[in-house]
């Protein structure tokens, strides 16, 4: 089933009624894929366009993802979420949206190849891009260190898995101390390593003392081998850590919304209302790109809220009106009925 109108070319005429989606979802991480499942199950005409770099692909194994008591690897979770969305007919296209504009109530989004989608609503599920430290050996070594848990990017996600390990946080000095104190729940041995030479504030220095966090000199080299990271400090000393947490900030993928004038916080993450709508009517944002906690469960919760709000905002798509529902939906529903009868 292809429930959505195909994209047209940038140089073609503007949107037609028939060629306009109920919703375009930009990004197919946990947030975007969950929104796709919900909206497809609401029998809406949707499309998903995705750049293929979900943060979840880095997750060696998540143990705080609801419903997976024995853990789930990020790529396996993405596969399941994609299978679920596609089972309800959500079309997912590989591509990177580079332009988003609005004329009246209709959004037009175009990708780098000049394909354009028109939609009454847009869900931005574009996530963030982490700023990572320079590791000897480059990207391949970085990936190996993340896969081994020797470099961890989310203390809320996997602090538990780092229990009793020798840990370090690399960040601007006050952030390094605060994150190190957070990690003291899990380990007695946590160092704060300033990203660059700077003195901590009096408050953070006191925090470090009271939490028994050692503030080390700046790192001059970071290496990974055999499941551990080794830091060489500016004073020549070396220390091996089971896990290093870099907290160096990120780039929120909010540019498309920013060009439309959507409200952003100081980290350029999107500010939304209680239905996940940005300050632009019809433009919703979910997951990491939103000013909120960066977690899978948060992204899928955002998705449920946004998708339901969008369905309720759209004109009704009553069952007896085939034009208001995606092509092929009859076959899909019949197939589901048949499967249910067989079960
Ligand atoms: C190493 C690591 C471990 C983690 N462990 C956990 C964990 O155990 N538990 C947990 O809850 N969370 C964990 N997280 C966080 C989790 O991965 C994120 O919270 C989650 O992936 C956010 O989902 P999202 O859908 O908002 O964004 P993402 O998953 O990042 O997906 C965004 C998608 O949008 C696409 N995109 C961006 N811009 C465009 C564009 N212009 N056009 C088209 N597509 C675009 C990207 O290519 C990407 O595919 C971890 C993260 C990392 C890095």
Rg over alpha carbons: 23 Å
Question: What are the secondary-structure elements, in order, as H or E?
Answer: EEEHEHEEEEEEHHEHEHEEEEEEHEHH
Low-confidence stretches are none
- Kindly name the structural category: alpha/beta
How confident overall, as mean pLDDT? 94
Distance between the termini: 23 Å
Instruction: Report the count of strand segments.
Output: 19
Task: Say which molecules are bound, naming each kind only once.
Answer: flavin-adenine dinucleotide
Work out the helix count: 9
Oligomer type: single chain
What percent of the residues sit in helical stretches (DSSP H or I)? 25-40%
What best-fitting shape do the alpha-carbon axes yield?
A: elongated
Report the major sheet: 5 strands, mixed
Q: What percentage of amino acids are in beta strands?
A: 15-25%
Lay out the secondary structure.
Layout: E1 8-9, E2 20-21, E3 23-26, H1 30-41, E4 46-50, H2 74-87, E5 92-94, E6 97-103, E7 106-111, E8 115-119, E9 122-124, E10 128-130, H3 138-147, H4 155-158, E11 167-171, H5 173-183, E12 190-194, H6 202-211, E13 214-215, E14 219-225, E15 228-233, E16 238-241, E17 243-246, E18 250-252, H7 255-259, E19 283-285, H8 296-313, H9 329-342
Parallel strand pairs: 2-8, 3-4, 3-9, 4-5, 9-19, 11-12, 11-17, 12-13
Antiparallel strand pairs: 1-8, 6-7, 7-8, 10-18, 14-15, 15-16
Helix pairs in contact: 1-2, 1-8, 5-6
Bound molecules: flavin-adenine dinucleotide.
Flavin-adenine dinucleotide binds next to α1, β4, α4 and α8.
